[in-house]
Design brief:
Elements: H1 2-22, H2 65-81, H3 101-105, H4 107-146, H5 150-173
Length: 179
């Protein structure tokens, strides 16, 4: 995802740079981080006309160089420091137990480590299901009382059934996980 964002940013910057070098009649800013912005370059009749079925008679509008610099500067800051408008990323504490050197050195010990991690994952699912199943049941009942259509309720019912089935399957396969 970061590579895609980087490629898009680089492509946009190269496109803007190409436009600036291609169009020599663009206004040059007086200051980059701009207290004072230059005036817009007026659209003249000498600009090329678009031709074709959808753009006949439309004139190309010049881009103000100060806007280009401001956009590039904003994009660079967002890439380096993040976008201040985005919500903060809530990181969870890493509760996983990394393997010990003894686990990595011995195949049987590593298999036991993997089994402990799988059991912990199953336990976490069962605990989460025990709290979520009543919530989903309450939401389904609330939806029925509000007159929500049966096909929309079916989504919640299916989710509830899949969660209950998975919980039952895990408890059947691993009786030691009984709460």
């Amino acid at each position: 995802m970061k590579r895609l964002w980087l490629l898009i940013t680089i492509g946009a910057l190269l496109g803007v740079a190409g436009l600036v070098f291609w169009r020599s009649d663009l206004a040059v800013p007086r200051q980059v981080a701009g207290q004072q912005l230059p005036h817009l370059v007026p659209v003249s009749d000498s600009l090329p006309q678009w031709s074709g079925p959808h753009g006949a008679g439309l004139q190309m509008q010049p881009v103000e160089t100060a806007q280009v610099h401001a956009a590039a500067q904003t994009m660079a800051l967002a890439r380096q420091q993040g976008d201040p408008r985005s919500p903060p990323i809530k990181r969870r504490a890493d509760t996983s137990e990394p393997p010990k050197q003894a686990d990595l050195a011995n195949g049987d010990a590593f298999n036991a480590y993997e089994q402990r991690m799988s059991t912990k994952t199953y336990q976490n699912f069962i605990q989460a299901a025990d709290t979520e199943i009543p919530k989903i049941q309450a939401q389904i009942q609330q939806g029925q009382s509000m007159g929500i259509s049966p096909d929309r309720l079916a989504v919640g019912v299916e989710k509830l059934q899949r969660m209950q089935n998975m919980r039952a399957q895990l408890l059947a396969q691993h009786p030691e996980l009984q709460p």
